[in-house]
Amino acid sequence: MLTGLTLTEARAGLEARKFSARELAQAHLDAIGRLNKQLNAYITVLPEQDVLAAADAADARYTKGEARLMDGLPVGVKDLFCTKGVKTTAASKMLANFVPPYESSVTARLLDAGSVFLGKTNLDEFAMGSANITSAFGSVLNPWKRQGDDAALVPGGSSGGSAAAVAAGLALAATGTDTGGSIRQPAAFCGIVGLKPTYGRCSRWGTIAFASSLDQAGPMTRSVADAGLMLEAMAGFDEKDSTSSNRPVPEFSKAVGKSVKGLRVGIPAEYRAPGMPEEIAKMWEQGIAWLREAGCEVVDVSLPHTKYGLATYYIIAPAECSSNLARYDGIRFGERKDAASLDGIYERTRAEGFGPEVRNRILMGTYVLSAGYYDAYYLKAQKVRTLIKRDFVQAFEQVDVLLTPTAPSAAFAHGENMDDPVQMYLNDIFTVPASMAGVPALSVPVGLDSKGLPLGLQIIGRHFDEETVLSVGGALEAAAGFAHKPTLHAEAGV
Amino acid sequence: MSYVIEGKTGSWEIVVGLEVHAQVVSNSKLFSGASTTFGAEPNSQVSLVDAAFPGMLPVINKECVAQAVRTGLGLNARINLESRFDRKNYFYADLPQGYQISQFAHPIVGEGTIEIELANGETRKIGITRLHMEQDAGKLIHDQDPTKSMVDLNRAGVALMEIVSEPDIREPEEAGAYLRKLRQILRYLGTCDGNMEEGSMRADVNVSVRKAGEPFRTRCEIKNVNSIRFVMQAIEVEAARQVEIWENGGEVDQETRLFDAARGETRTMRSKEDAHDYRYFPDPDLLPLVIEQEWVDALKAALPELPDAKRARFQSEYGIPFYDAGVLVAEQAVADFYETVAKGRDGKLAVSWVTGDLFAALNRTGKTIETSPVNAEALGQMLDLIADGTINGKIAKEVFEDMVETGEGPEAIVEKKGLRQVTDTGVIDAAIESVMTKHADKVAEYRSGKDKLFGFFVGQVMKETKGKANPALVNGALKSKLDA
């Protein structure tokens, strides 16, 4: 079925004219029509005629032999990327009616590559969350279910809508953004591939900011090769983003399938957290064994500052967010709540416009930057961040990639982990350090736990060495042969 | 220390430091491509970055950096090859981002000095602490609607240089001299137009008082004073206020105050308790600003001649006094005018015409040097006519007035009015004969020893020749005739 293809397969099918881009787009619109009410993966679905018009344009290019990298491939766009003329909400009441007059650099590149946008996918409000339960437009449902249990599971977050859409056949692939694990953790929870590129690889221009020094866009796909293909379309220097890198963009898709023989894979001792569920530990061991069989050399390494990763992340990210979100003050954005004074307008507008998690983080961030606390919190966190980065650089003197679990558990149910924010934040424990260091990291689905839920392993690489990460990811993918489909799926429902 | 406040308990001296916000001359804003023209329709010069649309990012404008570096060089200051931008966080309706991008911890320019000159001719060095770049805010307009305030973002994001002095200033007059000198340097450099009325240069004034030899006492900051005269007034009244508080056993609170020029007083704007916590932190959207020494050197090599250097050169090159040279270089346009007039001519004569007759004429006609009815070339030609004897100094005054009035060239006026100097000795001799005949009695008196009458005869001969006679020839001929 058309909704079950990888990007690579669909691209080949379109090229061979086995089906048209219009048929492919229509199949996805139909699947969205059937399943989105349940999954709530999309906040906004684009008008059918616009989607089909884009598909027709792609078909015309195929006919003329001028097809581009992503031509005719239907994808979802996380609703954090500004899309020209299409409502962009960041899953917040604040931006409930915001229609950007501009296209983000990443989505502009995807459009230039011929992608067909289906709609804007749900997320945690302003990308703050690990379960996609903080969206002002409702939670996203994970299409997977536990065996013998009908509990509604979370898709992970913050790119939960993108992950659910790709897993359930509502898009061939989707964009995500990752600040502390927002691509990788939901990818693991939904049994798909998610790649957080090196910081600076994709332009941040036009992507609504959460924490500027950490935010990075990346692909969420059904295969490692797809992640390479889509990253190739998304990445590249942008003079409008001073932090974007001007390194050339390699042909990432070609990295998959390259031999990994002789590559050195590091296993960081500090990731063997006490209390790690046995199933996670077992899956990790399995991954190590697979890579060994593929010819990799496995090396124990140490990342001594790992234990400070989460704590420093939850200082730096909220600090930046408290400043980045100051612009939503009711003067230009958000529904203005009247009050007797200007400060009153700010207080009411922001108290009512932001959800509780966003308010929490703004408060935390404001606190750690305040006079008298700055040195103890923010400045110290920045110093620790430097040490964390150094850990990785030193580890990469010995090894080519690191292998770790993506998340400390499989998807959990709505209601679980929700009383204690710290428990929720622990979801990011394995993903945050790579974000802090700015290095690329990939989550690959490798198996199911005893309840039938997908688990992912994470491959972390050197700065700007996504190619090696993709090569090792490809080897892991081949060995694991993960072909499971979630309960809710476009193909299953018909 | 000549400025002291005599209080009940003794003499007090004042301690003043200035923070000047100077709008950078550039075509576009510090971090966006929007235009910076003054006086455009409200909200017509606003980019998505300036209005802080979601996902917008700042990109540094290299020309603004160059302007800051030029200014730093002009202030003899250290240029920091690596500097950084921080966010200064606060909420206000004229600040779309909710933060101002500024350089808090690592400014682009470090310590420098400005030499000021006081009315009594003394010079003093005032230390510059730093210069940093930052964004200006927008403007709130309160008089368009009875209940609403309007926001104009044209100015939001325009580049400012904040130039901070050491607390070296000890007199209101020194503060005035400092601001004038700073403005002069900025204008010479072309980095700020120095126009305080349009707000492109504004000063925050830090004032404290102390007894001689004491460490610094608590200071107050007077915000946004918009003329040099007001800065000097504000210092006087604020210092007097503080002396009174201290002498009555009180304590001066560190606070932000406003100067009310109409009432001649300062008033509390924000007390220390209400002081903002700006939560500065490095802007994660911008990399550290790294510039190359070679680039700085190239900017330095291309700097225009600055007022102090020009003044010294005028003194030595044109042989004019220090004071006159200072008057000429006060404004670059005047200096340029003078130099055009003086080049290859008598520099002293040129300065007396420029600062004397020309300035008087500009004053009288309400013109500036830029709109002067007499241009530098024409004035120079007039000096040539004096030098080659075509006209004498007295006739030159008449010619000059005619130039001011008609805008015609000096030669045309001389020809038209027949003002060419009489050097024909026959004509002069005839005039002398006529005068001596008419005043035979005076001739007798002179010859009997009344030397002083010589001037009378000169005057009569000049009158006879309608002022056109060459005075030197008249003198010589008269002397020989009278003494014969």
Automatic annotation (TrEMBL), chain A:
Keyword Protein biosynthesis listed: yes
Active site: 78 (charge relay system), 158 (charge relay system), 182 (acyl-ester intermediate)
Membrane spanning residue stretches: none
Start and end residues of each Amidase domain: 23-470
InterPro entries: Amidase, Amidase_CS, Amidase_dom, AS_sf, GatA
Catalytic activity: L-glutamyl-tRNA(Gln) + L-glutamine + ATP + H2O = L-glutaminyl-tRNA(Gln) + L-glutamate + ADP + phosphate + H(+)
Annotated keywords: ATP-binding, Ligase, Nucleotide-binding, Protein biosynthesis
Key word Protein biosynthesis present: yes
E.C. numbers: 6.3.5.7
PROSITE patterns in UniProt: AMIDASES
HAMAP family reported for this sequence: GatA
Protein family membership: Belongs to the amidase family. GatA subfamily.
Primary role: Allows the formation of correctly charged Gln-tRNA(Gln) through the transamidation of misacylated Glu-tRNA(Gln) in organisms which lack glutaminyl-tRNA synthetase. The reaction takes place in the presence of glutamine and ATP through an activated gamma-phospho-Glu-tRNA(Gln).
Subunit structure: Heterotrimer of A, B and C subunits.
Protein name as annotated: Glutamyl-tRNA(Gln) amidotransferase subunit A
TrEMBL record, chain B:
Source species: Acetobacter malorum DSM 14337
PROSITE patterns: GATB
Annotated function: Allows the formation of correctly charged Asn-tRNA(Asn) or Gln-tRNA(Gln) through the transamidation of misacylated Asp-tRNA(Asn) or Glu-tRNA(Gln) in organisms which lack either or both of asparaginyl-tRNA or glutaminyl-tRNA synthetases. The reaction takes place in the presence of glutamine and ATP through an activated phospho-Asp-tRNA(Asn) or phospho-Glu-tRNA(Gln).
Similarity comment: family membership: Belongs to the GatB/GatE family. GatB subfamily.
Catalytic activity: L-aspartyl-tRNA(Asn) + L-glutamine + ATP + H2O = L-asparaginyl-tRNA(Asn) + L-glutamate + ADP + phosphate + 2 H(+); L-glutamyl-tRNA(Gln) + L-glutamine + ATP + H2O = L-glutaminyl-tRNA(Gln) + L-glutamate + ADP + phosphate + H(+)
EC number assigned by the record: 6.3.5.-
Pfam families: GatB_N, GatB_Yqey
The entry's keywords: ATP-binding, Ligase, Nucleotide-binding, Protein biosynthesis
Complex formation: Heterotrimer of A, B and C subunits.
SUPFAM superfamilies from the UniProt entry: GatB/YqeY motif (SSF89095), Glutamine synthetase/guanido kinase (SSF55931)
Keyword Translocase appears in the UniProt entry: no
Gene3D superfamilies: 1.10.10.410, GatB domain, N-terminal subdomain
Name used for this protein in its record: Aspartyl/glutamyl-tRNA(Asn/Gln) amidotransferase subunit B
Asn/Gln amidotransferase domain: residues covered: 336-482
Keyword ATP-binding: yes
InterPro entries: Asn/Gln-tRNA_amidoTrfase_suB/E, Asn/Gln-tRNA_Trfase_suB/E_cat, Asn/Gln_amidotransferase, Asn/Gln_tRNA_amidoTrase-B-like, GatB, GatB_C_1, GatB_Yqey_C_2, Gln-tRNA_amidoTrfase_suB_CS
